[in-house]
Design goal:
- By secondary structure, this protein is of the alpha/beta class.
- The protein has a single domain, classed as Alpha/Beta hydrolase fold, catalytic domain (Rossmann fold, 3-Layer(aba) Sandwich), CATH 3.40.50.
- It is 26% helix and 23% strand.
- The protein contains 7 helices and 12 strands.
- It has a 10-stranded mixed beta sheet with strand order 1-12-11-10-9-8-4-5-3-2, sandwiched between helices.
- The relative contact order is 0.16.
């Protein structure tokens, strides 16, 4: 089932896509490489994955994709997912970020300061002659990836929401941030209220397993409804639990999901990476065919995607036509307004 809406009354005004059956959803690059480093701006130990060409060098003009880890989940458990997203054409940055909290002590917990710190880090990497990514990064384009708590932090960053633990101090959304794709994530406060996500056109995709026993599917729906502007998408995967994104299900150190996954782990990782990578390709790289796959045709081609709810950005001509109609209606109302006193 696909629910595709335009965000305005006239659904017929949605943009029409021309790639319904011919789009190749596989990664753009066949190989990848990675290296480990330390972010000089916050001290985070960091793994960076990037696609490679036939001569083993990094591809050119790579947007940045920051992976915000789930609570208590080490960065190493995202290696398969991150490498697959990287092959769609991104420098994928996976840090270990520690915070000290009353509940967990010194623990792996993402935080809203990380996107700017990673932008600063990759700007430095882009100018380092001994870096594998020297001159290869497009620092003007940033996408977010996230799992569970990390996805909530990504949503907070996009919506400029500052919640306890997720946010240490007021912050601004980086200008380079263009989209986020999050797995098993939702955004609500401690009173279980779902918060408006004023994304100002920054794309949001929520990928959710229907067997997730920690981030319940209903919470993804309630979060999706709070995303204020397109493009946005909510993708539901059959047989996938809260850890369908990690190298192993129920990784050491994480709070386990009480519900078992029923599909193979390699399948859930590949599916999640493909939909994440294509959404970022569509939004950061303006790949219209990739975005159309996520918003429309992909569900019919994927055996474990059971539903997609999505909203596309109307074509510019749609807005022009709508404004013209509105102006015309206002003129008519004023032209035939009754005199005062009647």
């Amino acid at each position: 089932m696909i629910a595709l809406t335009s965000g305005i009354v006239f659904t017929a005004l949605l943009p029409k896509f021309a790639w319904a059956t011919s789009f190749d959803a596989t990664p753009r690059y066949q190989t990848f490489s990675s290296y480990s480093t330390t972010n000089p701006f916050n001290g985070d130990a960091t793994d960076i994955y990037y696609p490679t060409l036939e001569d083993a060098s990094a591809a050119d003009d790579l947007p940045i994709a920051l992976m915000l880890q789930g609570a208590l989940v080490d960065k190493s458990f995202y290696s398969d997912y991150a490498s697959q997203v990287a092959r769609h054409g991104f420098a994928v940055v996976v840090p270990n970020h520690f915070q000290t909290t009353p509940d967990f002590g010194d623990a792996l917990l993402s935080e809203t300061s990380q996107p700017q710190a990673v932008l600063d880090q990759l700007t430095v990497e882009n100018g380092m002659k001994d870096s594998p990514l020297n001159g290869k990064i497009d620092t003007g384009k940033l996408g977010l990836l996230g799992h569970s708590f990390g996805g909530a932090v990504g949503l907070s960053t996009i919506g400029e929401v500052c919640l306890p633990v997720q946010c240490a101090a007021p912050f601004e959304r980086p200008e380079a941030l263009m989209a986020g794709a999050f797995f098993g994530a939702n955004l609500r406060d401690r009173n279980d209220a779902y918060l408006p996500i004023k994304n100002d056109g920054v794309g949001v995709a929520l990928i959710q397993g229907d067997r997730d026993g920690r981030a319940l599917p209903l919470r993804a729906k309630l979060t999706y409804d709070q995303v204020q502007s397109p493009p946005r998408a909510r993708i539901t995967l059959s047989g996938v639990n809260h850890f369908g994104i990690t190298d192993v299900n129920m990784p050491d150190g994480a709070i386990p999901d009480p519900t078992a996954q029923t599909v193979d782990q390699t399948v859930s990782i590949e599916t999640t990476a493909r939909w994440s990578g294509l959404f970022l390709r569509g939004t950061l790289l303006e790949d219209e065919a990739a975005l159309e796959y996520v918003l429309d045709t992909g569900a019919g081609q994927d055996p474990i995607v059971v539903s997609v709810e999505a909203e596309a950005v109307p074509e510019p001509s749609t807005w022009v036509s709508s404004i013209g109609v509105a102006i015309g209606l206002i003129w008519l109302c004023r032209r035939y307004q009754l005199p005062s006193g009647h």
